[in-house]
Write a structure and sequence with these properties.
Elements: H1 13-19, H2 21-25, H3 32-40, H4 44-52, H5 58-64, H6 68-72, H7 84-95, E1 113-114, E2 118-119, H8 123-129, E3 138-142, H9 146-158, E4 161-165, H10 174-177, H11 186-197, E5 202-204, H12 215-220, E6 223-228, H13 255-262
Parallel strand pairs: 3-4, 3-6, 4-5
Antiparallel strand pairs: 1-2
């Protein structure tokens, strides 16, 4: 029997990811293609809302994100990827917490149904899909870094009562303690966290988990769930447990690496 002339492909999640590699590469699945297109159309406010919707730290990411979306950008196969992170910073400087209109993002919580049965951006979906599940239950988040604050943000939108417990005297985690201020202004971090606390999230500083205050005590205080986001403050050795290959060659780099360094 001869091979069929045409092959049939049933689209699945991997097929979808291949169509929008920039969004699939983003850890929070920001619709980069959409907000870049909106910028091209001059719709800067809508572009900002698209970038901000899944990410409470849009202004931070516009400055220090590793930009995996750019690595996956299909334009890179032609000449060079779109400078997506710089474009995000462009719209956050117009409408983000650091702008003259810092409350623009509040529009996301008043979303309406778009044409084609699509929900406006992402945040209304969180509120509506969990309306019959979240009934004010208490949730404890351990660690006030980007993961903990982002979790608290989403949980608060769903209707949970969230308390964040932070061991240090400053919220922000490695955004605050690990990134120098000339790369990321502390005021931007603080303003984005303030937007999350305005949702009703409480942050308790200088409150680490230890042998005297742990999961048992949190349960006793009425917290029904605990989200651990303690971070990785300590450095680590890249070659722990094995010697780098070049050290076994008389402490000399391989010839090909020497050539690269000499260019």
């Amino acid at each position: 029997m001869s091979e069929p002339k045409y092959k049939t492909l049933v689209p699945d999640i991997e097929f979808w990811k291949g169509m929008i590699p920039c969004q699939a590469a983003c850890p929070v699945k920001t619709d980069a293609g959409k907000y870049v297109q909106l910028i091209a159309e001059g719709q800067f406010k809508e572009s900002y809302l698209t970038a901000r919707s899944p990410n409470p730290f849009a202004s931070v990411c516009g400055r220090v994100c590793a930009a995996p979306c750019e690595d996956a950008c299909r334009r890179g196969k032609i000449d060079a990827p779109i400078t997506i992170r710089a474009l995000k910073r462009f719209v956050t400087e117009k409408y983000g917490v650091e702008s003259m209109e810092p409350d623009t993002q509040d529009d996301l919580r008043n979303g309406v149904t778009d044409e084609g049965n699509k929900r406006r951006w992402h945040l209304p979906v969180l509120q509506e899909s969990r309306a019959n599940v979240a009934r004010g239950q208490k949730v404890a988040v351990i660690g006030a870094g980007p993961a903990g604050i982002s979790a608290a943000h989403d949980l608060a939108l769903m209707g949970y009562r969230v308390t964040v417990f932070e061991a240090s005297n400053q919220a922000g985690g490695m955004m605050y303690h690990g990134i120098p201020e000339f790369r990321l202004a502390r005021a931007i971090i603080e303003k984005e966290i303030q937007k999350v606390t305005q949702l009703g999230v409480e942050i308790r500083l200088n409150c680490p988990l230890n042998e005297k205050f742990g999961a048992r005590e949190l349960k006793a205080e009425g917290y029904e769930s605990i989200f651990l986001s303690v971070g990785v403050q300590k450095g680590r050795h890249e070659h722990r447990g094995r010697r780098p290959r070049w050290r076994d060659q008389g402490n000399r780099l391989p010839a090909e690496h020497q050539q690269r360094l000499s260019r």
